[in-house]
Design a protein that fits this description.
The protein is 32% helix and 20% strand. By secondary structure, it is α/β, with parallel strands linked by helices. It has one domain: Alpha-Beta Barrel (TIM Barrel). It is globular and about 45 Å long.
Length: 210
């Protein structure tokens, strides 16, 4: 097995290059204006133009108007979409692009029920609850995640180099998603932490394969 890796909240070209060099499979760009990691559509093209083949750009939206999403897709036409707001299934699928639906794992949230509500989703992303729509930088109870799932699962929320290996061993996600866990400040990534994070994932994968 190989756990896929998404590094999210990138705002600088140097960090994009460092994340690619570290071995990230996908890079996330936050198009939510209230986020400290916000990237406007005009910045997306210079940030993504040097991405090599097989590294996927991911555009994150929160209850965004359609013109914003269309402008972002015009800049990055090969992007995977990620919806973090209150979007229903039709709103997520209308653009004809594969998408991930993010779930805040509050009390009462049932992953299997949410999978049924979003049949067109390429994957479900699980994050910790927060006061707003952004990440909280905290973990949630991984025991709430069923081992049998119908869609690929992307695990987020409070992951850092020190706990991501345990998360992989316990949850067996298709992918993991990190932002604040590899930062010096919001939107400013630390290349050493990115490399440590990915090394911990590779070690966990190797141990499981053995």
């Amino acid at each position: 097995m190989r756990t896929r890796i998404k590094i999210c909240g990138l705002t600088r070209e140097a960090d994009v290059e460092a994340a690619v060099a570290a071995g990230a499979d996908a890079l996330g760009f936050n198009c939510y204006a209230k986020s400290p990691r916000h990237v406007a559509p005009a910045r997306l093209r210079p940030l993504t133009r040097r991405l090599p083949p097989f590294v996927t750009p991911v555009l994150l939206f929160v209850n965004a108007p359609s013109d914003l999403i269309e402008d972002a897709l015009a800049a990055v036409p090969n992007a995977l979409l990620q919806f973090h707001g209150d979007e229903h299934e039709a709103a997520c699928s209308r653009y004809g692009h594969p998408y991930m639906r993010a779930l805040r794992m509050e009390e009462g949230v049932d992953l299997l029920d949410c999978e049924r509500q979003f049949p067109s989703a390429a994957a479900m992303l699980l994050d910790a609850p927060s006061a707003g729509y952004g990440g909280s930088g905290s973990t949630f109870d991984w025991n709430r995640i069923p081992l049998r799932r119908s869609k690929p699962l992307v695990l987020a929320g409070g992951l850092v180099p020190g706990n991501v290996g345990d998360a992989i061993r316990r949850v067996r996600p298709y992918a993991v998603d990190v932002s604040s866990g590899v930062e010096d400040a919001p939107g400013l990534k630390n290349s050493v932490r990115m490399n440590q994070f990915i090394a911990a994932i590779r070690a966990a994968d190797q141990a499981l394969s053995a």
